[in-house]
Every structure is written in C-alpha cells, then in structure tokens.
Specification:
Helix content is about 25%, strand content about 15%. By secondary structure, it is of the alpha/beta class. A ten-stranded mixed beta sheet has the order 6-5-4-3-7-1-8-9-2-10, with helices on both faces. Strands 11-12-13-14 form a four-stranded antiparallel beta sheet, with helices on one face. α5 (about 195-210) runs parallel beside α6 (about 260-285). The longest helix has 25 residues, at about 260-285.
Length: about 475
C-alpha cells in the first residue's frame, strides 16, 4: 500500500469538513454523506454518451456526469466480473486479492469466494456508523458460506449470490438477505414475469426511503446485471430503437435466452437501465438528500457485445479489445461521480485510478483509516474534489488473467503498459498517452523499460494455490 502523507489526510479532512458544513446549511442532518455506488455489468467505456456514444441514448447517466466529475482513466479490477468485484470490495489488486478469477477457473475447479479474513467496504463503513445495503449482483458467494453479503458487512441484500442465476432477467428465485425467495409468476425459460432490473430498482428505492428517514448515513451498492448476456427486454421498451435502420445482428438462444435482434435489444437495455438510474436520482431529489449524497456510476469490466471486427456501437471507444482482454477495451471503464456539495459540475479528471482505490476513498470520506494496512489502493478523494495537487498517484497498477488465452499479466507505470503472455514468453509494450488503441508494440525499441516493468511485475503478486500462472483447460468445454 502506498503511504498517504499526513498533509494529504489533513487537507482531505478539511475539504470534507467544508463539504459537510455546506450540507448542514441546506438542512442535511447527516454529517457524513450517503454513498450510492452504481455498477453495471459488461458495459463498455464507450457505451455512454459522456464518453462519445452516439447511437445509444443515456441522458440520465450523462446528466449525472455533467453535474459532477468524469474520470477518463479509471480501471476495473479485472477483465471479468467476479475478480473485478472482489478487488473493488477489498481494496487489493489481482496480485493480492483472495478471488483472482471467475468460479470455474480455479486450479481445483472449486470456486473461491472472499472470506472472513477479507475486510470489505461495507465492513469499513459500518465501523464509521453507516447502514449498508447491496441490491443486484454480488457474485462472490458461489459456496454460499462466508462470502455471502450479510457475512461481509452488509445489513441488507437483495439479489444474486452466484454467477449463473444472474445470467437471466426473469429469474424464478432471488436472495433476500440469507433466504432464497420465489418470484411469483416468473418463468425463466419463457422470459415471463417480472423483469429483474425493475425489482432491483424497486428494492434500491425502498432501501433509500427507509434510511432517508434517519440521521444515519447509508451506503447502497446498486449492482445492475445490465447489459450482461442474456440480452432480453420487454418488447414495449424497444420503442426507441425498433424502427432504426440498423443491420440485424441475429442472436442465438441457448444458455442465454437472447432476443433475436441484438443491436436493438442491447441499446434498449442500456437506455432502460439509464431510465431506472434516473428514478433513483429523482428519489434523492424528492427526499431532499441529493446534496449530501455521493453517487458514483461505473461498470465492472469492458463490453462483451460489440464485435471487434465489425464494431457497431464502438463500445470500447478508442480502446483495443473487450471483456477478457487486458488491453484498454477490457479494463478501462466509464466513471462519473456527483456530489453537489463537494464536486464541481462539468469537471474532468485524468487521474489514473482503479477499483482497488475505492475502499480507501470511502474510508477517507467516512473519516476512518483502512483496517487492513496491506491494501493496494490509494484514496482518490482529492481527484473527486478537483485537487490534482494533493492527489497521490500509483507507482504502478497490476492485473493478471488466467482464462482462455492466459495466463497474461499486465502492469501500467505512468503511460507505459507492459503485457506479458506468460506461457508464450511474449511481451508487448505500449505508451497509452500516444497510442491509446495499443496498435504499436514498441517492446523492441525500449528494452530497458521492458526490464524495469518485468521486475515490477514479478514483485507485484503473491502466490495463490488456486490461481497459479499456469495454462489449464477451459472448464466450460
């Protein structure tokens, strides 16, 4: 973990105090801000209007970004969802995190969940007096044991513990806290009943209403499954796009019960969740708690839908690759934050940050030190508040990936990115400041930089018995 200077802590606390003082002037009872973290599933960096999307309408998300700050260099914890969410929750990158791959990609084939030794964001915020809730996809309790949200600091949970049930939008069962409950009228195979995104929004709004009545600040982790496969949405919600003169990308139905028209369905799903995020934001206004509520919007990794050889939505923006890649398109994600009392509107930050920074950031906001001193994150509170001078930077960022074409490692230091394909004994070096699309591998021109970054890469990880850097067969075949 990078040590934060005493000066930085003092400055952040002074600025935070000023924010809180401003909030009290507007009759906000809570001294600490509410925090809502909205995370979508497989949404690309370029899938939102504030990052240049032109075909898919995301007016409410774009408005949130306009009213706050956009981070242009924010990275997910991993190029797939399980480990990315574990990194987010624990403040440790993939070299140190308990969960370093999706469930079936362990060496033994037995899923690994976060455990009782991991200290989560929810546990840190409970120490600081917060009520904590998660709605949506958790995906860190495949074994239904200590990884469950209620065992990891969350007072309330509504959603999916495991990955496979989260693949469907008309599930027949869902968890409410530790109890698996039936959703009356739902038939998954026929895509009938209540659309899960609607239920997530309903539960999120209920949690907000409940805690807005008290003086206790709350943390809501709102993890929508949109737009992860399966691609499906009620027909009446396709009105924005059904008459567009778009080519048909025909989707097949199998495990994922996809609707046939891929482009129309994908765009409709993103716009529909945008509308529902708008409902959450409107509720904050209705309850008069918007001014002292920090709302963050992001995605868990890069997109999966858009074809790289025939891009239609340009979901990765200027980046190369998509989900399961360690190129920019696989790990760079949209990020916007709004906190009216503290974040200046129409702000843009190029600070390089990642999911493992969120835990120390919320600790800074809540006025507590992280419990685990070995975390890899650095608080990005100064960048949120527009103070680039006081914002500390990472020496480097580290990822690894052990599915499919893996094992692959990545390290970013400054503008340099080194990618190592371990079993192929191949490296690639890119300068993302001048080559954001990573089209020009300059490893041969800069051997000294390659050696430096390989040395950092070797020291950036600890061994994990279930996630060695070895080639193994695809467990899904």
């Amino acid at each position: 973990m990078k040590k934060r200077s005493g000066l930085l802590i003092v400055v952040c606390l002074l600025v935070l105090h000023a924010c809180q003082s401003g909030a009290s002037k507007k009759n906000t009872a809570k001294e600490k801000p509410n925090i809502i973290y909205i995370i979508l599933d497989d949404l690309g960096y370029g899938d939102v209007g504030f990052n240049g999307q032109e075909l898919i309408q995301t007016p409410r998300i774009d408005q949130l970004a306009k009213e706050g700050v956009i981070f242009t260099n924010h990275y997910a914890g991993a190029p797939v969802c399980g480990p990315s969410r574990a990194v987010l929750m624990t403040g440790k990158h993939l070299g140190h995190c308990t969960v370093r791959g999706n469930p079936r990609w362990t060496l033994s084939g037995t899923p690994v969940d976060i455990d009782s030794a991991d200290v989560t964001i929810a546990e840190e915020l409970k120490r600081a007096g917060y009520a904590t809730g998660i709605v949506g996809k958790w995906g860190l309790a495949e074994n239904l044991l200590q990884g469950r949200p209620n065992e990891q600091g969350f007072d309330f949970f509504y959603g999916f513990n495991r990955h496979l049930p989260a693949h469907h939008y008309y599930p027949e069962q869902v968890y409410r806290n530790d109890r698996l409950i039936n959703i009356e009228g739902n038939v998954t195979a026929e895509k009938k009943g209540k659309y899960i995104t609607d239920l997530f929004t309903q539960e999120a709004k209920g949690f907000i209403r409940q805690h807005a009545k008290t003086d206790q600040p709350f943390y809501l982790h709102l993890a929508y499954t949109t737009p992860h496969y399966e691609l499906t949405i009620p027909a009446e919600r396709k009105v924005l796009y059904k008459d567009k003169d778009w080519p048909l990308r025909e989707m097949k139905a199998g495990h994922y019960l996809n609707d046939k028209n891929g482009h129309v369905t994908y765009a409709s799903m993103v716009s529909d969740v945008d509308r529902q995020i708008g409902e959450v934001l409107d509720l904050l206004d209705e309850l008069k708690i918007a001014d002292n509520t920090l709302v963050i919007f992001t995605s868990d990794n890069g997109h999966e839908y858009d074809h790289l050889k025939n891009e239609f939505f340009n979901s990765n923006g200027d980046g190369r690759g998509r989900k399961r890649d360690l190129y920019e398109g696989g790990i760079k994600v949209p990020f916007a934050a709004r906190w009216p009392e503290c974040i200046a509107p129409n702000s843009i930050s190029d600070h390089v940050s990642a999911f493992w920074d969120f835990l120390p950031t919320v600790c800074d906001i809540a006025g507590v030190e992280p419990t685990d001193k070995s975390i890899d994150g650095i608080s990005f509170l100064p960048a949120l508040l527009g103070d680039a001078v006081q914002q500390k930077n990472h020496e480097y960022l580290y990822w690894e990936f052990n599915e499919g074409r893996g094992p692959i490692q990545l390290i970013r230091k400054g503008d340099w990115k080194l990618i190592r394909f371990v079993t192929k004994n191949r490296i690639e070096l890119y300068n993302v400041a001048t080559d954001v699309s990573e089209t020009n591998n300059v490893a041969a021109q800069y051997p000294e930089i390659c050696e430096e970054l390989k040395g950092l890469m070797d020291s950036a990880r600890t061994e994990h018995p279930e996630f060695p850097l070895t080639k193994r067969p695809n467990p899904y075949k």
